[in-house]
Design goal:
- By secondary structure, this protein is mostly beta strands.
- The chain has a domain of about 70 residues.
- It is built from 4 helices and 30 strands.
- The strands form 7 sheets. The chain has a 9-stranded mixed beta sheet with strand order 5-6-10-12-14-16-18-20-22, with no helix packed on it. A 6-stranded mixed beta sheet has the order 17-19-21-23-25-24. The chain has a 4-stranded antiparallel beta sheet with strand order 2-30-29-28, with no helix packed on it.
- A hairpin with a 6-residue loop joins strand 28 and strand 29.
- Helix 3 packs across helix 4.
- It is globular.
């Protein structure tokens, strides 16, 4: 049986005013019915713990293999090729694609083109002593040879159309932060591992083949970024801004948010399936209502076994009755003490603690 610990309080409101503090204990199986459906409960548990989602665990790990951690915590010998390969790629024996296969702008640190014939490409971390920090505009555009690319920890930016109209299916880029306009548009991309990604610009994945994305650092999604994309699932706990028609005509069915409701442009979910659900995994997030982008929102409840006020136990008995708040979409439980009614919001968040 899964154990879930309480860590956060959304609100404790006394009818006669005042503030209160909650402490939390284990939530047992008899509280499982707090969520409206088993499917919702399972998805929320998966989003929060991440322990059942290997893709999420890999993305959130930061690619810290044992060998990589050892190198990162020691004084890195930049004259040792094996140490540098282990640091940048997690493998001291990986074969880096020859620098001569790339066009390179030493002033900007951008790879501008690829002329090789390999299906698997390992981008150099430097060329002639200059760090490779970006793939320039259309660097691989319309390339139908390359299928898989592994980037170093120096690469942070993909330019406009960098992989547009390509046969690329997989990109592993641990330090990538920015996707420019149309970066993967009309590509065959199905897998992107980019735990540092913060910005997805306009049309970046439009008409691509991407079906799922875990992006723990992502804050901004541009206009029509996933338009006509077969994306079904997005986990973006840091997201704060979504552009017009961002997911229009995608097949998105679930998106996981971790903070306050993002600012959103027009028609962000236009043409998406009607069963799309926005899951809010942070119980302290604000600004959310029953719907977002005309699609339902599912929030976590917060449970409290005891309520303290001014360091003293204020509530000693709680009913089992559950209530739905139509404005915040939270589930509330009435808690009684000395004839006064408290409304306490609750959730299934692991970690434990007192607020």
């Amino acid at each position: 049986m899964k154990k879930i610990i309480m860590i956060a309080l959304l609100a404790a409101i006394a009818v006669r005013g005042g503030t209160g503090t909650l402490t939390f204990d284990w939530i047992h199986a008899d509280t499982a019915a707090a969520l409206s459906a088993g499917t919702d409960r399972d998805r929320l548990d998966a989003a929060i713990t991440n322990e059942v989602d290997p893709v999420a665990m890999e993305a959130l790990s930061g690619y810290a293999t044992t060998g990589e951690l050892a190198i990162a915590t020691a004084n890195l010998d930049e004259t040792d090729p094996r140490a540098m390969r282990a640091y940048h790629y997690g493998d001291p024996d990986i074969q880096i694609t020859p620098a001569g296969d790339f066009g390179f702008d030493a002033t900007s640190g951008e790879i501008t083109s690829y002329t090789g014939t390999n299906k698997v490409v390992v981008l150099p971390y430097e060329i002639n002593g200059v760090p490779v920090v970006a793939l320039g505009n259309s660097a691989f555009a319309a390339n139908n040879v390359v299928k898989t690319i592994k980037a170093s920890k120096t690469l942070t930016t993909l330019g406009n159309y960098a992989f547009a109209f390509t046969s690329l299916t997989s990109l592993d880029a641990p330090a990538l932060t920015t996707l420019s306009n149309f970066a993967f548009a009309y590509s065959s991309l199905t897998s992107l591992v980019a735990p540092s990604l913060t910005t997805i610009s306009n049309f970046a994945f439009a008409y691509s083949s991407l079906t799922s994305l875990v992006a723990p650092s992502l804050t901004t999604i541009g206009a029509e970024a996933f338009s006509e994309c077969p994306l079904t699932n997005l986990n973006a706990p840091s997201l704060t801004s979504i552009g017009d028609n961002a997911f229009s005509y995608s097949v998105l069915t679930s998106i996981y948010y971790g903070g306050n409701q993002p600012t959103a442009g027009a028609n962000i979910y236009y043409g998406t399936p009607t069963n799309l659900v926005s899951y809010v995994t942070n119980p302290t997030a604000t600004g959310w209502g029953n719907t977002f982008g005309d699609r339902p929102v599912v929030r976590l409840p917060l449970y409290a076994d005891e309520v303290y006020s001014g360091g003293s136990l204020a509530v000693t008995e709680a009913t089992k009755e559950l209530h739905q708040d139509s404005y915040t979409n939270l589930v509330w439980r009435n808690v009684f003490s000395n004839g006064w009614v408290w409304l306490v919001a609750y959730t299934n968040t692991p970690g434990g603690g007192q607020l």
